[in-house]
UniProtKB/TrEMBL annotation, chains A, B:
It comes from Novosphingobium clariflavum. Coiled coil: none annotated. Residues 96-220 form the GST C-terminal domain. InterPro entries: Glutathione-S-Trfase_C-like (IPR010987), Glutathione-S-Trfase_C_sf (IPR036282), Glutathione_S-Trfase (IPR040079), Glutathione_S-Trfase_N (IPR004045), Thioredoxin-like_sf (IPR036249). It holds the Pfam family GST_C_2. PROSITE patterns: GST_CTER (PS50405), GST_NTER (PS50404). Residues 14-93 form the GST N-terminal domain. This is Glutathione S-transferase family protein. Gene3D superfamilies: 1.20.1050.10, Glutaredoxin. It comes from the Bacteria.
């Protein structure tokens, strides 16, 4: 049970979020990676609905989660934190040079080339659905998401994971693909749907998700 | 003159792009970093307007630029390539642990927390300006861009660069801020405008930009 009250490793998360984003907040990525390597950690939960304190913005200047502190390094950005953890454990990041850089390449690709398209569509559907322009913007956003997914599926090919063994690239990419959970689009890309299911089937993912959901204090309304 | 026909380091770029994106294509980021450390490199130019070859998609699965190959490592994603170059030269990435991770944190923040908001507004203005929904979506996009810039300016504070000395984080962030060059928004954030100017004033940036612009074969129409 890596969740531990006196752990040296602390990450920030939210104590409450709207129902439609439960299970999708980005501290999940770090929880998952920490569960994969059995590292004790604890959560510093902040109120998502309240203004961030000046102290929190010293830690995370954009007021987002997660931020990270293990007593040695204080940082933020889920991709950067994954890389930091990966450098400490070959179960998260291969050490052979080409395999290492392939994993890092896909870590950046997940965050910079795939996530923006999927997050845009997610935002249109879950946060701006009442706006007339959102409906008009949607076909283009779907087309762009499909284009990214088609390229990704082709690049994945027959591999189980993006960089050979399971790595931080998969932690990030699987959580990015979950941004389309409210649609049927991923089913059009069977190899990617199977890839995402493979990630979600890992015991460490299941523990991380359960622990994230348990931390929300307010009723889900579901 | 780091551009060199028989250099071992190759990056991909476009031989032609529409006038409104000239000087903003992402190979600029890698050219700039290579110019900073005086590394010889050459360009593999592809036609932006033609479908990508299967061979190119083996190198860059999304069909974008830049991709990178130095004979030892073959990779893509500008953020990942910057990190790779940073690990080879302390002029691009500090080696002391907290400073190193601060730079890496800001490298990810530039690509994941700032660029999506600025690129969205850039896209609305430069590629979808004829669409009625783009006009309606614009106020929200401007508000989101301003929010990111306000947080970034506060985080930068009185520092010249994001992680102490100049680093790959600044290469990425300065090129990201250039996505608003078609607007007056950055002028509302004087410390960021000065930060961007400081980056653009570096001789390595000027050489990289000039070399990128020289490579475009078609008339600019400007």
């Amino acid at each position: 049970m890596p969740l531990c009250d006196d752990a040296a490793t602390v990450i920030s998360g939210f104590s409450n979020v709207p129902p439609q984003v439960r299970g999708h907040v980005r501290d999940l990525r770090i929880r998952w990676a920490l569960e994969e390597i059995g590292r004790d950690y604890r959560l510093d939960l902040i109120d998502a609905m309240a203004p961030r304190s000046g102290e929190y913005r010293q830690w995370q200047p954009f007021g987002q989660v997660p931020a990270f502190d293990d007593g040695e390094i204080r940082m933020f950005e889920s991709g950067a934190i994954l890389l930091y953890l990966g450098e400490q454990d070959p179960h998260l990041l291969p050490t052979a040079p080409q395999a290492r850089w392939q994993a890092i390449t896909w870590l950046f690709a997940a965050g910079n080339s795939v996530e923006p398209a999927l997050a845009h569509l997610n935002g249109l559907d879950l946060f701006f659905a009442q706006e007339p322009w959102a409906e008009q913007a949607r076909p283009g956003a779907v087309k762009q998401a499909r284009r990214k997914l088609a390229s990704l599926q082709k690049a994945l090919g027959e591999r189980a994971w993006l960089a050979g063994p399971f790595s931080i690239a998969d932690v990030l990419m699987v959580t990015v693909l979950r941004l389309l959970d409210h649609t049927d689009i991923l089913a059009e890309f069977p190899a990617l749907a199977a890839y995402k299911a493979r990630g979600e089937d890992r015991p460490a993912f299941a523990r991380a998700l359960a622990e994230q959901l348990e931390a929300y204090v307010a009723p889900t309304g579901e």
